[in-house]
Amino acid sequence: MKQDIIRRYFWLLDIIYQAGTDGLTYEQISNKWQKNDSLSNGELYPWRTFMNHRNKIRDIFGVDIACNKSYNTYYIADTNDIKNATGFKSWLLDTMTVNNRIDDCAGLKERILLEQNPSGKEYLSTILEAMRDNNMITFDYKPFWGEEERVSNLFHVEPYALKVFKRRWYLLAKYGESPFKIYALDRILNIDIEFEYFKIPPQFSAEAFFNSYFGVIISDDDPQAVKLKVDAFQAKYIRTLPLHHSQKELETTEEYSLFSFFIHTTYDFIQELLSLGENIEVLEPKKLRMEMARLGKAIKRNHS
Q1: d(CA 249, CA 240)
Q2: pTM of the model
Q3: DSSP letters along 100-143, please?
Q4: CATH tag, 224-302
């Protein structure tokens, strides 16, 4: 599906959602369309195109744009379909809503700085196609670790899921009964879709798989209860932008707050804790506390 088409779906979804229960008439929608030059080129919104977009939004995203025949207005039949969106749908809605706002204020584009899109997009469409049809893929891989020019040849895997983490795309994949592995898309080379098919177990859920992970590093170890002591200033940031969905605030004082997590203490989570510097203290588990102390000594030694 072309990105321009998706933008049009979300533009329509967004303006009707913002109108609330009163909705918008077709004429109002068409006028808004005409004013958005990046979508309309100054032309009115054809009725057939409007109806087609309305039907596609229902079929693809499960959101029904209903018509109030008493006033000939269009509104979101159940706004909870949008408010309760999770995962991929939520990400798409948030992203396209922001894009629509920026498009509506084209004169401000030079004053709005966004992060670069995730790296590794070159093979994204190929992997998505393979995932859609449950085809296996083959590729070469050049990891960051090891020799500079080392390339591991012919990985033959079942592409299960994709995840974005810190502006990189990652692939969760496996082969047969082998354990899952993570591959960064920006380190993949020479990818091919195979004629061989695989079957995803009906109980598999990418959201459930990554539920107790911070990022994309996976582990055979069990997740653990983690307790952090965070100074009052840093706590404001963690409170408003949680480190992980399992985060709970256990205690709040004028000097500090205590937060708990249930999470795998993987390398990427430890790196995130290190980024908080002296503003936090790991209270539990003991092993993580000792590792933070070791890394702190190493940092001090490197800067002495």
Answers
A1: 11
A2: 0.73
A3: HHHHHTGGGGGG---PPPPB-GGGHHHHHHHHHHTEEEEEEE--
A4: 3.30.70
